Amino acid sequence: MTTQATRAVGVDIGGTGIKGALVDLEGGSLLSERVKVATPAGAEPDDVLAAVQTVLDTLGVTDADIPLGVAFPAIVKHGRTLSAANVADTWVGFEAEKFFEDGLGREIHFANDADVAGVAEAEYGAARDVDGLVLLTTLGTGIGTALLHDGVLIPNSELGHLQRANKSSDFEHWAAYSAVEREQLSWHKWARRLQRYYSHLEFVLSPDLFIVGGGVSKHSEHFLPLLDLQTPIVPAVHRNNAGIIGAAALALAHDGGTDASAAAGDLVAETD
Ligand code: BGC
Fold it and tell me: Does this model's pTM top 0.85?
C-alpha cells in the first residue's frame, strides 16, 4: 500500500523541459500525471525556480511534508552547481540547493540529473541486481552519465564531455540527441556517431552493462540494434521518467526513508 511515508515528489530539470510527478517509492512508479513545462530561455536561476514552482503548483504538491528531490543538468557537489553546459553560466559555483530551498520555502534534495536516473535504474530498473560496472547514459539536450559499481553510484562522472580525438568539440555536442535535431540526422547517421562514442567508453571503462536513458530511449529500436559492442546495451526501464523517480527516491531516503528507499539511502551519502 502506498502511504505518505513511501511517496516523494521528483522534479527533473533538463535543457529543454522541466518535468515533475508524485512518485511511489515502494514500486518506483508515478502516482500522478507527469507535468512538464518548457525550460525558460537562457535558463537563469530565477526563471528556472519560477518554472519549478509552476510544476509543483500544477501537481498540487505544495505540502512541505512530502519530500522533494530536484535533479539538475550540472555537476552538483554539496548543493552547489559547478558547471553549466546547457544552462546559464550563472549556475557555475552557485549555491543552487539553498537557492531552491529559500525560493520554494521548503527543504529539497538536489543532485545531478543523470546520477539520479542511475539511482532509479539501480533501484527499480535495468541496473537492479547487476554486479560490476554499469554505465547509464542519457541522450537528450546533452549527454549525462551515471557510473554505478555493484549498485553504488560514483557521482558526477560527466563522460558526455569526453573530448573527441583531434576535434574541437566533445562527444556531447556531436552525439547527443540534440545533434540529431540540429543536423537532421537519420537514425543510421546518428548510430554511427553513437558507435564511436560507446566504443570509446567501452575501451576506457570495460563496463558490464550500458543503459540508455533520455526521451529518445523510447525509440531505442531504431538505433540500439545498429550498434556493434561487446557490452550489452539496453534502454532504461524508466525511460524518460528515471530522473523524476531517482530524484524522488533520493529525497525520500534523505528524509528518513523506508525499506523501499534504504538502498537509495546508501547512495545518497555518495552524492553529498
Ligand atoms: C551536463 C551534465 C548533465 C547532462 C545531461 C551535460 O551537459 O554537463 O551534468 O548530466 O548534460 O543533462
Answer: yes
Q: For residue 137, give the C-alpha cell.
A: 547514459
Contact between 11 and 50 under an 8 Å Cβ cutoff? The reply is no
Q: Is the CB of 73 under 6 A from ligand 1?
A: yes
Domains present along the chain, CATH in parentheses: 4-116+240-265 (3.30.420.40), 130-238 (3.30.420.40)
How far apart are alpha carbons 239 and 126 in whole angstroms?
10
Closest listed residue to residue 248, CA positions, set 116, 136, 52: 116
DSSP conformation class of 88: -
Q: Is the CB of 158 under 6 A from ligand 1?
A: yes
**What confidence tier does 179 reach under pLDDT thresholds 50, 70, 90?**
very high
Please tell me the distance between residue 73's alpha carbon and the centre of ligand 1 in angstroms. Answer: 4
Quick one: pLDDT at residue 261?
45
Per residue in 87-105, pLDDT (tens digit) is 999 999 999 999 999 999 9
148, 133 contact by CB (below 8 A): yes
pLDDT at 48: 98
Q: Which tens digit of pLDDT belongs to each residue from 55-96?
A: 999 999 988 889 999 999 999 999 999 999 999 999 999 999
Which residue's alpha carbon is nearest to atom 10 within ligand 1?
A: 144
b/e per residue 216-254 (b: at least 16 CB within 10 A): bbeebeebbeebeeebebbbbbbbbbbbbbbbbbbbbbb
Dihedrals phi, psi of 96, to nearest 5 degrees: -70, -45
The residue among 260 and 216 whose pLDDT is bigger is 216
Residues paired with 10 in a beta bridge:
21, 69
Residue 158's DSSP bridge partners are none
Q: Is 178 left (phi over 0), alpha (psi -120 to 50) or beta?
A: alpha
